[in-house]
Structures are given as structure tokens and as C-alpha cells.
Automatic annotation (TrEMBL):
Keywords: ATP-binding, Nucleotide-binding, Transport
Listed Low complexity bias regions: 342-353
Protein species of origin: Halobaculum roseum
Family of the protein in this entry: Belongs to the ABC transporter superfamily.
PANTHER family associated with the record: ABC TRANSPORTER ATP-BINDING PROTEIN, ABC TRANSPORTER ATP-BINDING PROTEIN NATA
Protein known as: ATP-binding cassette domain-containing protein
Length: 359
């Protein structure tokens, strides 16, 4: 990154956050109709970290990001970007910052992939020849090398999305905001993009803020998650700690012996989250802590239910999100899961014995 740094920023980058906001508020409109889009938000993000910004529609995420980017002027509060007060002069603060908002960027569709990278490096203030190696590396990592000389308009949607990301990174930005970066990508494309985001943070100390409704992407890629609701931050923690804070494990079983009558009986005694008597074999999921799990297996044993399969399902980021905001993430904008795993939970262990019994 040193070769692409363009200004005389803070001499001790390790001690300076990538950005920080303090007491940030933004209202739209006035009087009784005023919308408090962001209210008294404070946040500081370390360099080289990947932060997920989550929240239901209208929570204030875009307003916060645009306030940090300087395209929305906050009513109150301060923003510091890469060691500089954003209010002191936009060029200095934003020289090494870039963004891909709403899942896309205005790439030039008549230009080739490589020409786009050179163009965006130039408008970012970098001589494109000086970052040619970087562009080669980006194209390689994003599996675009073979299409480097193809006009962007001839590419698939997923490839265009990857070109958007490459363009954002073409000038050597140290802080990037990515809104729905995997929108429209297939499973493989999404995986490639996530891998590249992680590599950029780990190897090049790029700081990445990812805003997405796709919880799986956020869970996979982010070190830390900030959850907003109604203009405020309602959670801000490492992904593991957020997951650990929700004590809502589920035991999911499958058995040919799960008759509708047995399921009805179990419903009276346990917190049945989900049941499907018509599945082959029928299935049952029960929310439980450790003690209730013993009671459940005793009840199943007493009812002569031989288990074909047992999974323990850990709480997912989606469960945490629903718990914190009371809202479901917008499934319509989420990409497909990588595998057959249920989105609503993270299967931890399949423990069905060969004989189907549980002792
Ligand atoms: N330019 C604007 N004029 C008036 N109201 C606005 C404007 N921009 C945002 N708002 C309002 O501010 C609130 C926060 O909007 P914002 O776009 O920041 O939320 P968001 O979390 O990004 O939502 P989404 O996930 O739907 O993109 C919403 O009630 C929105 O209607």
C-alpha cells in the first residue's frame, strides 16, 4: 500500500483509526415530519478490519455511510477519516477512500475491464502505470484476467459486479465502503469476492465496511458487526461474541416415527420451533438449552421414536439480528447460500448413530 499512498497523512497510521464518528446526527425534513435518520451515533473502526453494517430498511445505514463519505452533511457530530477531520477539507480526508454503493458502480461499459481500472486510478489521482501490477493482481484474484481486454458491456452481471469491486480498489484506496457487494453473484462469484475482501484486509490492511442484507456474507467475511435500528447503534461487537450472546440452540431431529400425534404431544411440552410431519422422514426442531435437551430425548425414547438424524443448530447472525431489531433481514436481496445448510441456523453437528438410536 505504501507505493499508492498519495498524501501526507498521520505519521503513525497504526494509532489512527480508519475512521471515527462522534455524536453524529442527521435529520431530514423539519418539525413534526422530521425523520431522524441517524441519532447520536459514535463509532471508531481500526485499520485493516472488516466491519459489517446491518439494519432493517430505513435504519440509517446509508445516511451514516454517506455522512462518513461527506456526501451527506450531518446536523451534529464529527467525522474523522484516515486521521483527518472530514470538515477540514474534503480532498485531504477522502484521497484514499472509495465506495461501491447500492451494489454497483458507474463503470464505463464501452471501455475494457483494464481500461476501467486505469480510468478509476487516474481520477483517484494515481498514475495508472504506477499501479499496473496492482491491477494485474486484482484481475487475477477476481478471476477476470481472461476478460481484461473485453468491453465491460459484454460481461455477465456477476462479472460486472467484480469489475465494480476492482474499480473501487484500482487507485489503492485504504478505506472502502461496499454496499451489497455480492448482490447478483452466483455462489462461486460470491465466494471469490469474499475471499478477495478478506485478503485485502489481511494482506494489504485495507479497511472494509460491508453493508448487506445477506447475513451469510456478513458472518463469513466480517470481524465485527455494527447493527443499527431506528437511527441508533443497537449492537457493536465481534461476530463470535454476538453469536455467543444468543442462547437459542435448536435440536433438529428426523424420524419415521414422528407421527402427527407424537408431534402434537411434544408441542405441548417443548418449545417446538418447526415441525414437518409430511417430510420424508418427518422432522422436528426444538429450541432448547442443555437441560431441556435431556428431557426431550427422554420423551422421544418413551414415545418409541427411533432417530434417523439429529442436528444441533447454533444461533445464526440472522437470529441475532432478528432478536436485536425485531425485523427480518430482507431475504429478497440475499444471495443463495453456499450449500444446503439452513439459512436460519448453523448446523453444528450431525450425530445420528448408525443404528439410529440416541443414548
Ligand atoms: N434524502 C432524504 N430525504 C428524506 N428522508 C430521507 C432521505 N434519505 C434517507 N431518508 C430517510 O431516513 C431514514 C434512514 O434512511 P437510510 O437510507 O439511511 O436507511 P438504510 O438503513 O440505508 O435503509 P435501506 O436498508 O432501506 O437502504 C429513512 O426513514 C429514510 O426514509
Amino acid at each position: 500500500m505504501a507505493s499508492t499512498t498519495r498524501d501526507g497523512r498521520d505519521p503513525d497510521p497504526d494509532a489512527t483509526p480508519a475512521f471515527s464518528v462522534e455524536g453524529l446526527s442527521k435529520r431530514f425534513g423539519s418539525g413534526a415530519d422530521a425523520v431522524h435518520a441517524v441519532e447520536d451515533v459514535s463509532l471508531s473502526v481500526e485499520r485493516g478490519s472488516i466491519v459489517g453494517l446491518l439494519g432493517p430498511n430505513g435504519a440509517g445505514k446509508t445516511t451514516l455511510i454517506k455522512s462518513i463519505l461527506g456526501t451527506v452533511i450531518p446536523d451534529e457530530g464529527t467525522v474523522r477519516v484516515l486521521g483527518r477531520d472530514a470538515a477540514d477539507g474534503r480532498r485531504g480526508a477522502y484521497a484514499n477512500v472509495d465506495a461501491m454503493l447500492e451494489g454497483a458502480r458507474n463503470d464505463y461499459w464501452r471501455l475494457t475491464v483494464r481500461e476501467n481500472l486505469r480510468y478509476f486510478a487516474t481520477i483517484g489521482g494515481v498514475a495508472p502505470d504506477s499501479v499496473a501490477d496492482r491491477h494485474d493482481r486484482l484481475l487475477d484474484r477476481l478471476e477476470l484476467t481472461e476478460r481484461a481486454d473485453t468491453p465491460v458491456r459484454e460481461l455477465s452481471r456477476g462479472m460486472k459486479q467484480k469489475v465494480s469491486l476492482a474499480s473501487v480498489l484500482a487507485g489503492g484506496a485504504e478505506l472502502v465502503f461496499l454496499d451489497e457487494p455480492t448482490l447478483g453473484l452466483d455462489v462461486e462469484g460470491s465466494r471469490t469476492l469474499r475471499r478477495e475482501i478478506r485478503r485485502l484486509a489481511e494482506e494489504e490492511e485495507v479497511t472494509v465496511v460491508v453493508s448487506s442484507h445477506d447475513m451469510q456474507v456478513v458472518e463469513d467475511v466480517c470481524d465485527r458487526v455494527v447493527v443499527m435500528s431506528e437511527g441508533s447503534i443497537v449492537a457493536d461487537d465481534a461476530v463470535e461474541r454476538l453469536l455467543g450472546a444468543v442462547d437459542d440452540y435448536r435440536v433438529r431431529i428426523a424420524s419415521d416415527d414422528l407421527s402427527p400425534a407424537t408431534i402434537a404431544d411434544l408441542r405441548d411440552r417443548f418449545a417446538v420451533a418447526d415441525a414437518d410431519a409430511s417430510a420424508d422422514p418427518p422432522t422436528l426442531a426444538v429450541s432448547t438449552d442443555g437441560d431441556a435437551a435431556y428431557d426431550l430425548f427422554e420423551a422421544l425414547h418413551a414415545a418409541d421414536v427411533t432417530l434417523d438424524r439429529v442436528d444441533t443448530v447454533e444461533p445464526s447472525l440472522e437470529d441475532v439480528f432478528v432478536r436485536l431489531t425485531g425485523a427480518a433481514p430482507d431475504a429478497s436481496s440475499a444471495s443463495e447460500p453456499d450449500d444446503g445448510a439452513a439459512r436460519a441456523g448453523r448446523p453444528r453437528a450431525a450425530t445420528a448413530g448408525d443404528d439410529g438410536g440416541v443414548q
